[in-house]
Amino acid sequence: MPIDAAKAVAAQPRTGEITWNAKDVQLYHLGIGAGTPATDPDELRYTLESRLHVLPSFATVAGSGSPGVISGLSMPGVEVDLAKVLHGGQSLTVHRPIPVRGKATATSRIAAVHDKGKAAVLVMRTEVADPDGPLWTNDAQIFVRGEGGWGGDRGPSARLEPPVGEPDRVVERSIREDQALLYRLSGDLNPLHADPEFAKVAGFERPILHGLCTYGITLKAVVDTLLGGDVTRVRSYATRFAGVVYPGETLRIRTWSSQGAVRVAVSAVERDDAPVLADTVVEHT
């Protein structure tokens, strides 16, 4: 079996230094669609260095690294075909606001391996801290088709009860044709998002948008429309990737607000509201 669950979980964590600066933050923000309209004061918070705030989902690319998916596949006990890999879900806990520039230590490990029958799910956990203490914790759920069935623990269900009632707010966000090409410059160079031939081998009609790009677009929409544009109010953000997005499509983002949390559902407008993000929760102050 290409995945040795016991070996993967028992492996020593990998620790390394990461750094980032204002240009990295600006590039990430542009990659998730910030800057439209370019002179809008609300957008300048994401694009102009003199006013810059860091959207917490930047943590998934800080240090120009992949979002735990590619790095997770190189851990001991894991040897799989990249074409069988999908990003199944992502969760982020923010311990304090992310600075515009920084140097920190990132410690990554396989926290769990779940047997889903026809697939395996690896949980790649990355904890990041600087000299002042913890900054954030990222969990990437890596879905590997065809690698389950060894009789291991199925793990917890990621499914939540659907939100009750009509959404409080519905917004739409257009995806540029070159969105994936721009977003991948922040570190995730998986050819699935750029190479048509690779995309076909992986079972898609053409390259798809990074799930974490949709993840960032959605968080920005929640911050801008429900949290007064205050990125520091976000405490945690979790989602399950329920479907793909193709560059050029439109995202429909539905939100249900409650005390200290926002439930979110995201779909692709042009494909009859096909689900894209599900079981999505933003916790905030």
Approximate strand percentage: 25-35%
Total beta strands:
10
Oligomer: single chain
The DSSP helix count reads 7
Arrangement of strands in the largest sheet: 1-3-4-5-2-7-10-9-8-6
- How would you classify the helix and strand content by structural class? alpha+beta
First-to-last CA distance:
45 Å
Gyration radius (Cα, Å) is 18 Å
Mean pLDDT: 93
Low-confidence stretches: none
- H-E string: HEHHHEEEEEHHHEEEE
Main sheet attributes: strand count, strand direction, barrel closure: 10 strands, antiparallel
Shape field: globular
In which range does the helix fraction lie?
A: 10-25%
In short:
With 285 residues, the chain is of the alpha+beta class.
Task: Give an account of the 3D structure.
19% of the residues lie in helices and 34% in strands. With 285 residues, it is of the alpha+beta class. The termini are far apart.
